[in-house]
C-alpha cells in the first residue's frame, strides 16, 4: 500500500480508498509544510496526523491510519482584529455590499415559512445557522477560538430570514456566546412577534477545531472523527453538548416554539443525532453542509422525549 501511494504521489495521479475509519490516537501536526514521502511514511507508520499547506496539491486519500488535512496557507489572520486591520478588509466589505445588493435585486418578496400545527404536548425548535461572516468568505476555518462578525451579505441573509420567520410567534430565543450568532439573532428578532428574552449559552457554540483554526481552505483528504489529536473538541464531548443544548431548550418550553441561532458543524451534529435515533444515518448525510441562515425545524414530544426533524437546510428565502 505504501509503495502504491508513493508512486501516485510522484505521478500526480489520484488514489481513492476507503475513509470510513482512520483511528489516530497520537497528536502530531505539521502545519504549513508540503507532504513529503518521509512525512507520509511516518504518518502511516505511527498513525499520526498531518496538516499540509502551500504548494502541494494532493488529490488522493490515505487509508492506513493517517489523517491528512490540506490547507491552502498557514494562518493568514490569527484573530478577527488582524483581518479588520488588514488592507483587504475594506475590499471584502465593499464586495460583500455588492453581493447583497445583487442578491436583493434578484429575489422577490419573502414568503413566510408555513409549518404544520404544533401538538400541545410538543416543543418546536427552529434552528438557524448564522449569516455569512468575513472569514466564511475567505474560507478560513474557525470555531470558537476566532470570533468574527457577519459581513454585509450575512446581514442581508439575516434580514430575509427574519421575514421568513415573521409568521411564527417565538416564546424564547437562544444564541451561542459567539458574535456571529448574536448578531444574526439581533437582526432576526424584531421580525418575530413574541420572543421575550435571548439566552446566550456556550452549549450552542461552534466546534472547537483546535490547531485547524485560522487555516485557510482546510479540507480533509483522509477524514476521521474530530478529536483530541488536533487539540480540539472530541466527538463524545460534542455529542454530549448537542444533547445538553437540546435539553436546555426543552426545559420549561413544553407546548412552545423557540428559536435558536447556532453554527454549521454544531447544528449538523444535533440533526445527525436525532436522525440516528429516527432509524439511521443515511438521511443525516444530507446535512453535511448547512447554508448560512438556513432554517431547520425539530419537534420534540414532551411526554416521550422523541425528537422529529421537520425541516432541514431550508433556504428558499435566499434562493433565486
TrEMBL record:
One Pfam family of this chain: His_Phos_1
PANTHER family, per the entry: FRUCTOSE-2,6-BISPHOSPHATASE TIGAR
Binding site for substrate: 129-136, 180, 206-209
Gene3D superfamilies: Phosphoglycerate mutase-like (3.40.50.1240)
Sample GO molecular function, one term: fructose-2,6-bisphosphate 2-phosphatase activity
Position of the signal peptide: 1-21
Protein name stated in the entry: Phosphoglycerate mutase
Organism encoding this protein: Triparma strigata
Record SMART domains: PGAM
GO biological process, one term: regulation of pentose-phosphate shunt
InterPro entries, per database record: His_Pase_superF_clade-1, His_PPase_superfam, Phosphoglycerate_Mutase
